[in-house]
Amino acid sequence: xxxxxxxxxxxxxxxxxxxxxxxxxxxxxxxxxxxxxxxxxxxxxxxxxxxxxxxxxxxxxxxxxxxxxxxxxxxxxxxxxxxxxxxxxxxxxxxxxxxxxxxxxxxxxxxxxxxxxxxxxxxxxxxxxxxxxxxxxxxxxxxxxxxxxxxxxxxxxxxxxxxxxxxxxxxxxxxxxxxxxxxxxxxxxxxxxxxxxxxxxxxxxxxxxxxxxxxxxxxxxxxxxxxxxxxxxxxxxxxxxxxxxxxxxxxxxxxxxxxxxxxxxxxxxxxxxxxxxxxxxxxxxxxxxxxxxxxxxxxxxxxxxxxxxxxxxxxxxxxxxxxxxxxxxxxxxxxxxxxxxxxxxxxxxxxxxxxxxxxxxxxxxxxxxxxxxxxxxxxxxxxxxxxxxxxxxxxxxxxxxxxxxxxxxxxxxxxxxxxxxxxxxxxxxxxxxxxxxxxxxxxxxxxxxxxxxxxxxxxxxxxxxxxxxxxxxxxxxxxxxxxxxxxxxxxxxxxxxxxxxxxxxxxxxxxxxxxxxxxxxxxxxxxxxxxxxxxxxxxxxxxxxxxxxxxxxxxxxxxxxxxxxxxxxxxxxxxxxxxxxxxxxxxxxxxxxxx
Amino acid sequence: xxxxxxxxxxxxxxxxxxxxxxxxxxxxxxxxxxxxxxxxxxxxxxxxxxxxxxxxxxxxxxxxxxxxxxxxxxxxxxxxxxxxxxxxxxxxxxxxxxxxxxxxxxxxxxxxxxxxxxxxxxxxxxxxxxxxxxxxxxxxxxxxxxxxxxxxxxxxxxxxxxxxxxxxxxxxxxxxxxxxxxxxxxxxxxxxxxxxxxxxxxxxxxxxxxxxxxxxxxxxxxxxxxxxxxxxxxxxxxxxxxxxxxxxxxxxxxxxxxxxxxxxxxxxxxxxxxxxxxxxxxxxxxxxxxxxxxxxxxxxxxxxxxxxxxxxxxxxxxxxxxxxxxxxxxxxxxxxxxxxxxxxxxxxxxxxxxxxxxxxxxxxxxxxxxxxxxxxxxxxxxxxxxxxxxxxxxxxxxxxxxxxxxxxxxxxxxxxxxxxxxxxxxxxxxxxxxxxxxxxxxxxxxxxxxxxxxxxxxxxxxxxxxxxxxxxxxxxxxxxxxxxxxxxxxxxxxxxxxxxxxxxxxxxxxxxxxxxxxxxxxxxxxxxxxxxxxxxxxxxxxxxxxxxxxxxxxxxxxxxxxxxxxxxxxxxxxxxxxxxxxxxxx
Lengths: 595, 586
What we know:
The complex is a heterodimer.
Chain A: E1 7-11, H1 14-19, H2 24-35, E2 42-46, E3 57-61, E4 65-68, H3 73-84, H4 110-113, H5 131-136, H6 141-149, H7 152-162, H8 174-183, E5 190-195, H9 204-211, H10 213-227, E6 231-236, H11 241-257, E7 261-264, E8 269-277, H12 287-294, E9 318-322, H13 323-335, H14 337-341, E10 351-358, E11 364-369, H15 374-381, E12 391-396, E13 403-404, E14 429-434, H16 439-453, H17 459-476, H18 483-498, H19 502-506, H20 509-517, H21 519-528, H22 554-558, E15 564-565, E16 573-574, H23 584-588
Parallel strand pairs in A: 1-2, 5-6, 5-9, 6-8, 10-14
Antiparallel strand pairs in A: 1-3, 3-4, 7-8, 10-11, 12-13, 12-14, 15-16
Helix pairs in contact in A: 2-3, 6-10, 6-13, 7-8, 7-10, 9-10, 9-11, 10-13, 16-17, 17-18, 18-20
Chain B: E1 2-6, E2 9-13, H1 19-25, E3 49-52, E4 59-61, E5 72-74, H2 78-93, H3 109-116, E6 133-134, E7 140-143, H4 152-160, E8 167-169, E9 176-178, H5 192-196, E10 202-204, E11 217-222, E12 231-237, E13 240-246, H6 259-263, E14 278-281, E15 284-287, H7 290-308, E16 314-317, H8 323-336, E17 341-344, H9 348-361, H10 370-375, E18 378-382, H11 386-389, H12 393-401, E19 407-412, H13 417-421, E20 424-427, H14 433-446, H15 453-457, H16 463-474, E21 479-483, H17 492-505, E22 508-510
Helix pairs in contact in B: 9-17, 14-17
């Protein structure tokens, strides 16, 4: 019986830890000790089991049955129960959020059933630190095929056929980039992997680097073979220490096994990989700024021409691709470009990983074929809006993306399909918003981010964004004037059309798209001096609704400055002059009596 | 060559030119702020945006975008004008309005653009930052509140001077140009940063608060601090020198300058300078008028010549005569008076090298010019101290080395400025430089491909480096050799080595100290051609003084002749090409 369970994977990522501070590993060890199974069942620490919405989980392998860790007391019992009767596992099994049905396995959950995993195929199933497990899951088989049975031109041909486009956001055809880099004869050439995932809220690349680092390495080695490079660099932002650790371990293991270094697999091909941690600059995710950062210089985008494929790192031909792009390469080589092309749409082939966050029930990483529409992603996979609130908007693509409304939910998500609507897929961040989000505040948030992260080289981004931020802040504190809307539009268009690099060119997108679709919210802020979503504190008129008030006194208790007085069985009274607008009362009131 | 249209004007430019360069050729104005022709384009100010009719709706920065054949560029669409005006408004939003107290007023690019585009409103408000002001550095004052972050000073100090003293610190709107750690300047003080700053952020302290630029008259002349003779502009207010700047050439390119030329002019105001002629009478020097002094000198010299012969007259000139002045001097003393002993105070090493080269190469050899320096694929420097003698060699060589495939070989016994920039630096044990050059000469003349390592080793020279040098000499590369003099040594061997290399390269340039030292430049066409000469120095014209017995100062040209405009910086030696020593009278 227990022989059919060989491993228990437990999710140890930060998100789960914060939700419920339970040390799953020691619980497991204790339970297994008690049951006497310690030593016979391996424990695998994985990063995202991706069922973030349910809290810390454990997964039994093989089989993939996922359990929630509800509390420590019941844990050992549950485990015992499970082992006692594998045929009929008892709760707390993972349950389908909508129907509350128990389900036998992770793959039956809607959240996972609708996903098609190529990039994320190994997550949770393998120990990221054990290269043997990666190999057992067809790891490095593509490399073997490449080095022994294909010429560099064959490899480039296959990647071109697959239609793979850069997953970092720009969507440049990867095969063409490799072909360009191969063309130039200068030596040495470099392969760079861009792991500086700077978009706030995006964690697609992080999960790949943490849970399947070898996929990235394999993709890079194949790229090196294709373009004629011998050296690869992975640039990982310093805010991802675990990814750095996983990658370092993976590189060490790969070197031991002969997948990196000299004479790989005995074929005479040399390739090695270094890791460069970043230093906290979003602008260093821009490819030329990234290369300057590796060279030890200031991370500022440079003028183009020449393109990096002709003269990039250290002035040599360089091929820079995103983590997710590289993670697709091995599968393309193994299954063929045609296979990849058969997934997704004609212009955007394959799958895309999205980080679905915000007001949805199922928060996490979602990998779906390109062309899947927003409604499927948000409502079927995401489970709809949490708390049964109303869908208001969806923000795509991070600080370079735009906001869309429910009119656009039918649109398929591809590189090109959202541009007419004023948004872009970007690197894959999806933030779902409900009535508690103020769109003006959302625009301000992303503009503030870009102001902080601007490199300062060109005037429109450095000065223009700050000026635009000033206008937004003016509106948010209630000093907006009707002419400000036209001013915002003018500022945004100027910045977008004259900035030097993608940061500045795309930074006005949140402002432009919210102006387009949520004009009435801006109007409310300016003309009525009111924030409909109750977010902008200066525009909220704090008032206690006498009819709704149930005299519980909770608001009075939580108010930090005693601005609410209350007497039993009477409506609470708000003293506005003391109120510091911290909104604690709004949060505390169960009856929504304050607005 | 490609042809494109700018505002419907057809213009043909070499392939690889930028749209901005094509627009200049077509005489169409495009505003720029962060652009300086001496350094690479940067693309920060975004004022130079244009539109391509074939790709409407997209604004292209013209300063770095390459021009392509059959492009159809327009520079004055409403979208472009709107972009430029908004851009200027954004720059002004961060800029203090201190024109009345700012020295740059009157020659400020920002001022000129604001007037040109008629910016009279500040729709974005004013968002000034209080950045630091550095008043502690010598010679250069840095007021960073006025800085528009164009990056020109950073680039010129890094790319051209090679000093990397200034760099951007922090990021985004907090960016500020500073030294590392915010200390005072500790650099070469060449002032190239001051010459490039388009606004009043970097200022010449010697000029600050003295006067306004519109009260100045500009006189273009040649710097006399060293033999390189960079073009400079003297700015005078009612005849008094107020500042010196590198010349702006007709093609708009600014020149190079060093600390001596830029900031060393205060010496001209020294009270101990002679400002009027004097005659010694009754044991003391007394001021006299020009006519009187010249007459007195002429009479005296004539007398001496008659009574004791021309050979009893010797001429000693100062170092900073211009070529024309020295030539006139030579005309007087050599041709009219028949004097054969002429020289200047310094640069014995230079004269020595020159005399050896003359002896070995014969009278018809011509020294290299600046063009040979610029075109060289391999630059060999024999001896150390070349850039210390001629400070502008530093940015010159720096600019050269940025091009692909250039080699700079320095053979010296001490680590000088050029050694740091060299791709191949051979360090010779101190005191053995001449011996090494002699050995190298022997090796090269005997067997052209190999030098015995045993002999070479005792000079402390790295044998791999030496092998590389030999192989470089054997390759088919344009080579120019600079010969730097050792002020305390004999300089014979390096001169001999140079003359040997002349056979391969035909491009030797002796480096000298100051202007009057006879320089060997081709110079403008009006200067005389080569003449036979004996051992030494000074200037002499090849053609007889056409204007008769011209001993008059007033007859000499008061302005240096210009070389062809647009040919870049002319190589102006001190005295003219007539630095051949005088021989017989014609």
